[in-house]
Structure formats: C-alpha cells, structure tokens
Amino acid sequence: MRKPILAGNWKMNLTYHQAEAMVEELLSLGKAPESVESILLPNFLCIPLLADKLKGTGYQVGAQNMSSEDQGAFTGEISWDMLKDLGVSYCIIGHSERRTLYLENNSQIEKKLRKAVKTGIKPILCVGESLEKRQAGEAKKRIEGQVHRALVGLDREDLQDLVIAYEPLWAIGSGQAASPEDAEDMCLTIRQWIEKGYGSDLAEKIRILYGGSVKPDNIASFMEKENIDGALVGGASLKAKDFYALIEGVQNA
Ligand SMILES: O=C(CO)COP(=O)(O)O
After folding, report:
1. Which of 5, 6, 10, 11 to mutate to test the pocket of ligand 1 (most atoms within 8 A of CB)?
2. pLDDT tens digit string along 3-29?
3. Number of structural domains in the chain
4. Is 234 in the pocket of ligand 1 (CB under 6 A)?
5. Is 173 in the pocket of ligand 1 (CB under 6 A)?
6. Minimal CB count within 10 Å: which of 65, 179, 208, 227?
7. What residues make up the domain containing 45?
C-alpha cells in the first residue's frame, strides 16, 4: 500500500504574515491525519516559520526548488543542507514554471535530482506536456523524455523516495483539470516505465501524483484511480479550509 500525498505548492504567494495566519487557521482545523502525507511547500523565507509552527503536528515542510551545488559563489541559490538544517523533507524538482519561465533544462534538473537523492531530500519530480504536444499526440513521448533524462545514472537504491508529479501545463492554474481517466493513463504509463527500467518493486513503491487545477470538489475523482497516489496542488492550497478539505478528500478516498 502506498501512502498518499497531498502537497501544497504555494509558489510565489503569501507573505510571512499571511503564511502565519494561514498555518494558524489550518492548525485550528485539526492535525494532519496519519494516513496521508500532508506537505506544505512555501517560499524559502517562510520555511523557518512553517518548520517551527508545524513541528509535532504531522504536517511536513517542503521547498519549491534547490541548487544542484553544495555551497559557494552561487548568488540567489539555496542548498540542500540549508533546507535540511530546517527540517525540510521534500523538494520540488523541475516544476514546469521553472522549466518554461526560468529555462531550467533536463540536464540541470538531472543534477538537482541527483543532489536531492544523494543528500536525503525526497524529490517531487514534476513532468508534464504542453497543449501543443498533447494535441499532436506526443504527450507520452514528452513525459518519457523528461522522466528518463531526470533519472540518468541513478539506480534503484537512489530512487526509493522518489515522487513523480504529472502536471500537464495546460491544466496548471487554468481551472481546466485533466480528466481523471487521462491523468490515470499518464500515471500508469509513468509507473510502467519505472517498472521497465528499475523493476516492479520500485514501480509499486513510488508515489505518482496528479497536479493541475485540483480542488476540494474534484480531488475524489482523481484519488479513486489506481495509479494516482495523491495531488500536487497550487491555488487551492493557499486557503486553510480548502487545503484541509483536500486532505480530507485524500483521506476518505
Ligand atoms: O502547478 C501546480 C502545482 O505545482 C498546480 O497549480 P494549480 O493547482 O493552481 O493548478
């Protein structure tokens, strides 16, 4: 049995004080249920705040990005040990906004993923196709390339904590989620590639999430699919009530 994940990617939203108010409200709604890994991924400045407030509550704190380097002259970057020092457990690697807006390429993503797995940060590798690729019937080819390029040179032992998030670009922030059937088809395909490359033990173990316009009222339709192990949520993770409702949606699936 794979433990489901509900991860809230706040992106560049919520100031320190807004984050504080959100987390206080979230905690007033209840603790994180044990049956769901509930992770909040705030901006870097809010990580210490969340790490402190969420200690002992069952919620985990993640980061949205990390450097592939250890330390040194890399202005504006954040390293794995800075994150670990604050208790960060998960880090998003290769989000489509980093790929498209900041031109992160497969080779940089591969280096970041390698750094994460070698240093004990659990990676949430994001993959997803554009609308053009989907309409051209090339969605699976696109995703396969992204998964394979990110995992180059890593073996089964390195990938025990890998999480993959399938986030089609056209579904992100658009209010137009993928159909649960299409999302399941893509998640199953990813699992089959992992099985082919690394064996069925790993394929059965890794969590594959869907992301893109997930809301409290559609989470159940994704969670009922066999190969969808949770969701990576943007907009709906910013409000405490919605985030808690999403967790309940995963818990009740
Ligand atoms: O990009 C996403 C999460 O990483 C999805 O964002 P939305 O839930 O706002 O569509």
Report:
1. 11
2. 999 999 999 999 999 999 999 999 999
3. 1
4. yes
5. yes
6. 179
7. 5-63+77-239
Is 171 a member of any domain?
A: yes
Catalytic one of 97, 110, 129, 167: 167
Q: Is residue 117 part of a domain?
A: yes
CA of 177 to the centre of ligand 1 (A): 10
- Pairing label, strands 230-233, 122-127: unpaired
- Stated pTM of the model: 0.98
Contacts of 99 (CB under 8 A, 6+ apart): 105, 109
- The answer as to whether 92 is a domain residue is yes
> Which CATH number goes with the domain that contains 36?
3.20.20.70
204 in active site = no
Give the residues across from 165 on adjacent strands.
126, 209
Flag whether 9 is marked binding: yes
Distance of CA 98 to CAs 27, 34, 102, 196, Å? 30, 32, 5, 28
Mean pLDDT of 40-59: 97
Ligand 1 center–CA 205 separation, angstroms:
24
* Domain contains 88: yes
Q: Catalytic residue at 167?
A: yes
ipTM computed for the complex: 0.99
For 182-223, the pLDDT digits (tens) are 999 999 999 999 999 999 999 999 999 999 999 999 999 999
3-state secondary structure 85-120: HCCCCEEEECCHHHHHHCCCCHHHHHHHHHHHHHHC
What is the 107 CA–ligand 1 centroid distance (Å)? Answer: 23
